[in-house]
């Protein structure tokens, strides 16, 4: 059963490997406009960037300020009517980090990229859909391991990757399936295992909130929510001083899932190829701007974040994207041939007389 769902994930994951290129193709990409030479090095304040997004979306409150690693001068501000508005009902605005001018909204609900992403992440079924796909991923990894065990005697007997094209069509399909399966073995195990880990993101985040974050916020327990008056610029400056070897990844505003009713939580990230997704939260009092606490994330969130670049293949530029896409296509062939062999298993003796 897992084959059909893995086929769905490979088919939806293939265009997502080229997410930015897909935006460009569909005309959804937002690019920074050219500025006169005397403004090329201009930098707007973070407070001005936030104000621009709120002016663009009156009646909204800020949820997140995000910097994509490949577009640091195009911060995305996520706003909504309430701080606890679900992600699918929020509004994102891309801001020019040099001028604080609103440039437009990234692709949202109803876009092709959104549909592909939802099918790939949870099949529009929320947490149950994520956990179901995670179970299918574990089953897929188990199927790969069992397939190798079954294939080993044949490998030792006739050689690795041999396809008996002079035999029946079904045997040729089976040999081709096995040969390509061995070729994609390591990649499929890697992507399948890391994908299964990623389906646990919501549960692991809740565990962190109830454990480490609760300890960090203990001094604020029972206090009413505050009105955020502290400067975002000062909060990010404090975060940089607290984690000087890291750079800002995103800011979670008070009342959101990644923060508390009393804090800006500045998530700092590593600056290396494989550490881009490794985060460290810095809690800043949203009323006074003072540092509250900062701790390394627990091992289970480090495992989750460390698995993400290995799953998405987005840490090596276009060459790695092409490599990931090529193995995705090969895995689609393996899954498709496996599904064909399973569906046609009852037909192999139909041509024989009763």
UniProtKB/TrEMBL annotation:
Regions that span the bilayer: 131-155, 176-197, 322-343
Pfam family for this entry, one: PepSY_TM
Domain of life the protein comes from: Bacteria
Signal peptide: 1-19
Keywords: Membrane, Signal, Transmembrane, Transmembrane helix
Classification via PANTHER family: BLL7967 PROTEIN, IRON-REGULATED INNER MEMBRANE PROTEIN-RELATED
Protein name in the entry: Putative iron-regulated membrane protein
Organism: Caballeronia sordidicola
